[in-house]
Design a protein that fits this description.
Elements lengths: L4 H7 L1 H26 L5 E7 L3 E7 L5 H20 L4 H28 L1
Antiparallel strand pairs: 1-2
Helix pairs in contact: 1-4, 2-3, 2-4, 3-4
Length: 118
């Protein structure tokens, strides 16, 4: 009997919770990176950078906290979807985990690039 990769992931429940934990850890790392490296506050910082134009949006530094907040919101919505889909479709429930993990990594990279600009 052949199993697809979603069933293999689902069969080992520790992998599922490990990936959700990794999403949360990446979110915490993004928040702490912004807090300690960029030091956002009331000062005006670059919020959006374009390679062709340069800095496009300036704003208050505390607006950078929207990056981990968006990541947490994406993970929360995907976790609710994961709970709703885990009994019916294993592929879609596994896909929510990977989408959350990819979103967290992309947002961490975005914070790293904004640290170079600021």
């Amino acid at each position: 009997m052949s199993h697809n990769w979603a069933e293999k992931i689902w069969s080992n429940l520790t992998n599922v919770w490990f990936l959700w934990s990794a999403c949360l850890i990446f979110n915490i790392i993004t928040f702490l990176f912004i807090f300690f490296k960029i030091h956002p506050g009331r000062a005006t910082l670059a919020l959006h950078y374009n390679v062709l134009v340069g800095v496009e949006w300036y704003g208050k530094g505390y607006n950078l906290y929207f990056i981990p907040a968006v990541g947490l919101a994406i993970s929360a919505v995907n976790f609710v979807l994961f709970k709703a889909l885990r009994d019916n479709t294993k592929f879609l429930s596994a896909l929510t985990i990977f989408a959350s993990l990819c979103a967290q990594i992309i947002l961490l990279v975005a914070a790293l690039f904004l640290a170079k600009v600021n």
